[in-house]
């Protein structure tokens, strides 16, 4: 199949591109390199340097005529969305509508959309959180993602555009940048590499930090491969269902970094503390029962194994 991946030079998108090409698919990448990198691009993919809001996007669809669109491009920072909701909406909603219009115009067979799990569900006591939970988005980023899901269902109802929506947990792995939802993994690794003591953000009554569901990027690639032919008209969580505090995450990364000769001094045993930031959820973990039943998908990497792979790749890179 020919697959157009938006954001295919970014952290997760580039791994998905690699996975599709490994399976023998013909892949086209659209990315404006705002957060993506040329070094992430698979040389076998055809690349268009372009913003997803551009009118020229129509030319890409006209030339390439993709069978599948996998939409990873987005404004990905929760704090940035709080600071500038208008820009967040312009990229995440207007950009989406531009891609949807062209998908309908050029007869795309399926639209795969990357949404967010914890941010869309908001503060909930139902953890691990299933897809049936009523969304309560608490940040402009989460609001635009939920709004996008509604637009996609409209295009399905009105134009017959098939889709699968994947609600990601906090994804981590090689090539990660520190600005995404799971950017703390990259921040901790690079801060320790530089010989500095990281900061753990937390609420006063939760000194070990908030909890998150951390899913390794290779497992996410497998989910994106499976939904090429499965999960039509469904919203599906992709995570591990396991809650991990920021403090627990830090201690795991610290131990792994010490195996490589970094941060051996006692000062690194006690990270600095900072107040929770606007939009920070207290707890988040996703139920993956639906992914198991509809896709036959389960994560292969536990957190410690995934972190070891990530640290190894980051130190080599």
Rg, Cα atoms, Å = 19 Å
Shape: globular
Mean pLDDT score:
96
Strand content is 15-25%
CATH class of the domain at 2-171 and 215-240 and 286-299, anyone? Alpha Beta
The name of the CATH architecture of the domain at 2-171 and 215-240 and 286-299 is 3-Layer(aba) Sandwich
Briefly, what is this?
The chain is of the alpha/beta class and 317 residues long.
Give the arrangement of secondary structure elements.
Layout: E1 2-6, H1 11-22, E2 26-31, E3 46-49, H2 57-64, E4 68-71, H3 78-83, H4 85-105, E5 110-116, H5 118-121, H6 140-159, E6 162-168, E7 170-172, H7 184-193, E8 199-202, E9 211-212, E10 214-216, H8 217-226, E11 234-238, E12 244-245, H9 246-259, E13 272-275, H10 289-295, H11 303-316
Helix pairs in contact: 1-8, 4-6, 7-9, 7-11, 9-11
Care to describe what's here?
- The protein has 317 residues and is an alpha/beta fold.
- The chain has a domain at 2-171 and 215-240 and 286-299: 3-Layer(aba) Sandwich (Rossmann fold).
- It is 40% helix and 18% strand.
- It has eleven helices and 13 strands.
- It has helices at residues 11-22, 57-64, 78-83, 85-105, 118-121, 140-159, 184-193, 217-226, 246-259, 289-295, 303-316, and strands spanning 2-6, 26-31, 46-49, 68-71, 110-116, 162-168, 170-172, 199-202, 211-212, 214-216, 234-238, 244-245, 272-275.
- It has a seven-stranded parallel beta sheet, sandwiched between helices. The chain has a two-stranded parallel sheet with strand order 7-10. Strands 8-13 form a two-stranded parallel ribbon.
- Helix 9 crosses helix 11.
- The radius of gyration is 19 Å and the shape is globular.
- The relative contact order is 0.14.
- The model has no long low-confidence stretch (mean pLDDT 96).
């Amino acid at each position: 199949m020919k697959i157009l991946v938006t954001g295919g030079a970014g952290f997760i998108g580039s791994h998905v591109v690699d996975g599709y090409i490994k399976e023998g698919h013909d892949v086209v990448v659209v990315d404006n390199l705002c957060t993506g990198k040329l070094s992430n691009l698979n040389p076998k993919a055809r690349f268009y340097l372009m913003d997803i809001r551009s009118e020229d996007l129509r030319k890409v669809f006209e030339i390439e005529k993709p069978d599948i669109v996998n939409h990873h491009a987005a404004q990905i920072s929760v704090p940035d969305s709080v600071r500038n909701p208008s820009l967040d909406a312009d990229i995440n909603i207007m950009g989406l509508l531009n891609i949807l219009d062209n998908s309908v115009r050029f007869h795309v067979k399926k639209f795969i959309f990357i949404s967010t799990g914890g941010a869309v569900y908001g503060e909930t006591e139902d953890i691990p959180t299933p897809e049936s939970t009523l969304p309560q988005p608490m940040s402009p980023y989460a609001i635009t993602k939920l709004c996008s899901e509604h637009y996609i269902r409209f295009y399905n109802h009105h134009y017959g555009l098939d889709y699968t929506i994947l609600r990601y947990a906090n994804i981590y792995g090689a090539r990660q940048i520190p600005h995404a939802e799971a950017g703390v993994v990259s921040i901790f690794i690079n801060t320790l590499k530089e010989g500095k003591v990281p900061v753990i953000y937390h609420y006063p009554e939760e000194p070990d930090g908030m909890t998150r569901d951390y899913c390794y990027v290779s497992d996410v690639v497998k989910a994106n491969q499976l939904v090429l032919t499965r999960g039509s008209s469904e919203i599906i969580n992709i995570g591990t269902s396991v809650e991990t505090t920021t403090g627990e995450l830090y201690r795991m990364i610290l131990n792994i970094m010490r195996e490589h000769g970094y941060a051996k001094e006692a000062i690194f045993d006690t990270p600095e503390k900072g107040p929770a930031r606007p939009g920070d959820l207290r707890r988040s973990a996703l139920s993956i029962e639906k992914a198991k039943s509809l896709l036959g998908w389960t994560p292969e990497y536990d957190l410690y194994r995934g972190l070891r792979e990530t640290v190894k790749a980051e130190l080599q890179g």
